[in-house]
């Protein structure tokens, strides 16, 4: 999978070199391209934003510079993801869908977002364009949201996760990602013992207990 990100803060994407993502990139399972939007600015001050038509607070990112970066990146197989708090909420099924794409482009808006004609243009050209939010709160820009999505998506690509059983177990689970509590050594820590059932060796009973715990946890999080 090829993953491009367009941003005025390329340094935000340094963590892509770490851990699972770093290994996935080194092994060639994913290839990252980070593009500095400001490098494509055409005006003297490398300005990428301007005041909104119709008035109002804040600044809007200008379409011309976005077109310059996106035109050479956009292919038939590309999914353009525009990060905005007004977008469709990112969740595990969406991560699963995007993990099957061969090319994701993350357009990271700052300020009050990107001129809407960028979305309109690529949609009209027949491209797949998605406005996505990672939750009901407002971030300073789409960079951190992109990182969240990239981590959730790439771990679903076959070969990225060291232990594919963790994925299988997740999807066995009703919600796909809700889990039971886990315990490891020592058996007793600060007067708290590991639940007896987990030491029993009775795998059917353990599975039952875990399913009940996962449901209990899900209820408490509503
Ligand atoms: Cl994708 N962008 C911004 N700026 N804020 C957000 C978000 C995205 N998702 C949740 N809050």
Summarize the structure.
The chain is an alpha/beta fold and 222 residues long. It has helices at 19-26, 63-73, 92-98, 117-124, 143-154, 164-172, 203-220; strands spanning 2-7, 31-36, 49-50, 60-61, 78-89, 103-108, 128-133, 188-189, 192-193.
Write up this protein.
This protein is an alpha/beta fold. Helices cover 33% and strands 20% of the residues. It contains seven helices and nine strands. The protein has helices at residues 19-26, 63-73, 92-98, 117-124, 143-154, 164-172, 203-220; strands at 2-7, 31-36, 49-50, 60-61, 78-89, 103-108, 128-133, 188-189, 192-193. The strands form three sheets. The protein has a five-stranded parallel β-sheet with strand order 2-1-6-5-7, with helices on both faces. It has a two-stranded antiparallel ribbon with strand order 3-4. Strand 5, helix 3 and strand 6 (103-108) form a beta-alpha-beta unit. It is elongated and about 70 Å long. The site of 6-chloroguanine (6GU) has 12 residues, from strand 5.
Main features:
single chain, binds 6-chloroguanine, 5-stranded parallel sheet
């Amino acid at each position: 999978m090829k993953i491009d990100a367009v941003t005025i803060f390329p340094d935000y994407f340094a963590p892509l070199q770490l851990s699972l993502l770093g290994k996935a990139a080194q092994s060639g399972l994913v290839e990252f391209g980070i593009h500095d939007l400001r490098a494509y600015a055409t005006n003297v001050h490398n300005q990428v934003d301007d005041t909104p038509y119709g008035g109002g607070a804040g600044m809007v990112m200008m379409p011309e510079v976005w077109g310059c970066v996106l035109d050479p990146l956009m292919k038939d197989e590309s999914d353009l993801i525009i990060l905005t708090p007004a977008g469709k909420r990112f969740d595990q099924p969406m991560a699963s869908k995007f993990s099957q794409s061969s090319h994701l482009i993350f357009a990271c808006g700052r300020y009050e977002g990107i001129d809407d004609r960028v979305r309109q243009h690529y949609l009209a050209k027949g491209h797949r364009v998605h406005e996505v939010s990672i939750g009901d709160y407002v971030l300073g820009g789409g960079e951190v949201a992109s990182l969240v999505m990239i981590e959730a998506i790439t771990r679903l690509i076959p070969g990225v996760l060291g232990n594919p059983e963790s994925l299988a177990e997740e999807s066995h689970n009703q919600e796909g990602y809700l889990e039971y509590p886990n315990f490891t050594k020592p058996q007793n820590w600060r007067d708290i013992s590991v639940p007896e059932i987990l030491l029993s060796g009775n795998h059917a009973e353990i599975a039952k207990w875990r399913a009940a715990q996962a449901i209990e946890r899900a209820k408490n999080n509503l």
